[in-house]
Amino acid sequence: MSQRKRIGNIKVVLMVFAVFLVGVLIGSGQSQKVSALSNSTYEDLKVFTDVLGLIQKDYVEETNSKDLIYGAIKGMLETLDPHSAFMPPNMYKEMQEETKGRFEGLGIEITIKDSILTVVSPIEGTPAYKAGILAGDQIVTIDGESTKNFSLMDSVKRLRGPRGTKVTISILREGFTKPKDFTLVREVIPVRSVRHELLEKSYGYVRISQFQEKTDDEFGKAMKEMQEESKGSLKGLILDLRNNPGGLLDQAVKISDRFIESGLIVSVEGRKEDQKMKFYAHPDGNFAQYPLVVLVNGGSASGAEIVAGAIQDQGRGIIVGTQTFGKGSVQTIIPLKDGSGLRLTTARYYTPRGRSIQAKGIVPDIIVKPSRSEEEKEALTPKLPAERDLERHLIDVEKGVPKEKGKPKKDEVKENKPVDNQLERALELLKSWEIFNKTAKENK
After folding, report:
1. Of the listed 113, 157, 254, 327, which one is catalytic?
2. Helix ranges (DSSP H) in 16-174
3. Does domain 194-442 have CATH number 3.90.226.10?
4. 327 an active-site residue?
């Protein structure tokens, strides 16, 4: 059975997450049976049931047993890594919408850094983006309530809501003398997975904002449109994965497969045998003939890092930009019988050369910093959090990869920077690629 078919047969969809969106990416599947517990675990559970009984009997106010049990499960997941979480039925149902490219909220990606709710980036065109929310902003209150003890799920629940409703967030930003309130009106956030355009009539540009259910199909259509628009004279391609927080694992694999004709794309390794998988490239349906430059930055995470790592290790293209987020773990979405869901970290993934990027990220082949206007904006905001900054993040596990591999080829940045310096450099590389190939042919 081919690896493509195996992906389709997986009942519990493996998801790769970088950070929480306000409306987190989720999957679907079937409830799983839990194996028998050990005697010592049953003894510990007796303590839990004793405490539950005491609360229900003696607490000053009447309690709801389901609320208490949900709270206990939530607390249990919060003792693990920052990407594992419990989702009550209503939240689990809401989360399923985002893989279809639509949710209602503000349009910001958030994480927790140093116990503070922090914006990773706003999604272009959303209420948060229009209001001027910036990457690195710290959200100190939501509707007047301190976020100090909020989990990511608590924060997502409060920030999402029906379109047309309002929410006030208090932002602390470097340069602010005190927090500033922003009152935002929630909207339907149509997350467009793929955007494309032709640069200088002959060079393709494709931006993937995150990996959703139809990303690979949309990518195929984008490539076809650019081929037709260029009248078959497409000379190279820029794949922009900057600020892509990840998404569906199978879609990241399919996009990688578009460019790699053979060999390993990514391996997934967990504690159990059925959590160990290898995904390989296929020669059919790819775009291997085009010179390729991939743009990444600190907001490129998880699925985006799978694609960048595969292309880098297989020597298929050049990675340009800045070091990526560094999330090398895989989450499995497990539906539970009562309609709730469990998002559990079950494995680590490795690039074709066996590199784990957990808490380290992908180092580009050519380091190109953002343009001046972006650097000036970054100077006014706290540094973007990376996986290694998150509490309880998984420790990197290497697989014997030589230390000297993957070092960046540092590249100087020109003084007169264009609006998007990284994109300009990528285009220059494609042009140089064409000139080099033309010269090599003429000298044969």
Report:
1. 327
2. 39-58, 65-78, 89-95, 127-131, 152-159
3. yes
4. yes
